[in-house]
């Protein structure tokens, strides 16, 4: 495969991390992937490997009334069923704090919901089995009772006094605010021929598409970092 030479760089030194835009980019692994010889986590098989699947909340905001897992224990390949309350005894919640965003607020986020599900799709129970199919089938046997709570879905009204506060410990629904005052803003508004207020929007930011297939000797306890 012949790769065309890149055009001469036209970006400043600070922009060069993005210099792949509009240019030919060498891909050393392209031939291997195009031939179907790529290896992914789902291709890995290790001794004593187990698979986990999650029961997820169908509601955007709901109180978890009860979780019944007795039926799951009789399913084929069953190893364990773990709720958020059980996992909270051995793991601490994650709190999102970025040092370069002073004032950022983040509620504690347990790995599995405890007492409340705060977004649709949040995991409320984990089921471990010998195969992925057995874990997913076992999830269908978990019985979860919910009490729906008011949800906040509109960023335009999220800060209104009448809008429910999802995380009471934070005081309001504002996660982060940054004010910029650059140039003669008021003068620009006065002299403008027209004003345009774009609608509020929220950009979806998926997590990094990485996976792990951990392995440790029998008897060794796994730890989270």
General description of the model:
The protein is α+β, with helices and mostly antiparallel strands and 225 residues long. The protein has a domain of 144 residues: Aldehyde Oxidoreductase, domain 3, CATH 3.90.1170. It has 4 helices and 6 strands, in the order αβββαββαβα. The strands form 2 sheets. A 3-stranded antiparallel sheet has the order 1-5-3. Strands 4-2-6 form a 3-stranded antiparallel sheet, with no helix packed on it.
Topology diagram in text:
Blueprint: H1 30-34, E1 51-56, E2 62-68, E3 78-83, H2 84-87, E4 116-117, E5 123-129, H3 132-139, E6 143-148, H4 185-191
Antiparallel strand pairs: 1-5, 2-4, 2-6, 3-5
Query: How would you state the average pLDDT, rounded?
Result: 84
Q: What share of the residues lie within helices? A: 10-25%
Distance between the termini: 42 Å
CATH topology assignment of the domain at 47-190: Aldehyde Oxidoreductase, domain 3
Using the coordinates above, name the CATH class of the domain at 47-190.
Answer: Alpha Beta
The total count of strands amounts to 6
**Rg from Cα:** 25 Å
Helices and strands, in order, run as HEEEHEEHEH
Strand content: 15-25%
Order of strands, widest sheet:
1-5-3
Shape: flat
Note poorly predicted spans. 1-9
Question: Main sheet?
Answer: 3 strands, antiparallel
């Amino acid at each position: 495969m012949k790769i065309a030479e890149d055009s001469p760089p036209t970006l400043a030194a600070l922009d060069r991390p993005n210099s792949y835009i509009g240019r030919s980019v060498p891909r050393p692994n392209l031939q291997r992937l195009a031939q179907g010889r790529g290896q992914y986590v789902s291709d890995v098989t290790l001794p004593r490997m187990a698979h986990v699947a999650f029961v997820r909340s169908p509601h955007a905001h709901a109180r978890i009334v009860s979780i019944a897992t007795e039926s799951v224990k009789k399913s084929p390949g069953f190893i364990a069923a773990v709720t958020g309350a059980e996992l909270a005894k051995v793991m601490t919640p994650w709190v999102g704090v970025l040092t370069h965003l002073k004032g950022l607020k983040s509620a504690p986020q347990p790995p599995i919901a405890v007492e409340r599900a705060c977004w649709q799709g949040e995991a409320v129970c984990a089921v471990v089995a010998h195969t992925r199919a057995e874990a997913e089938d076992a999830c269908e046997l978990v019985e979860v009772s919910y009490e729906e709570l008011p949800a906040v879905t509109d960023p335009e009204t999220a800060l209104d006094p009448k809008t429910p506060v999802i995380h009471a410990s934070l005081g309001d629904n504002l996660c982060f605010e940054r004010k910029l005052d650059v140039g003669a803003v008021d003068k620009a508004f006065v002299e403008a021929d027209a004003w345009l207020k774009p609608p509020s929007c929220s950009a979806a930011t998926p997590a990094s598409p990485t996976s792990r297939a951990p392995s440790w000797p029998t008897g060794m306890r796994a730890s989270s970092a």
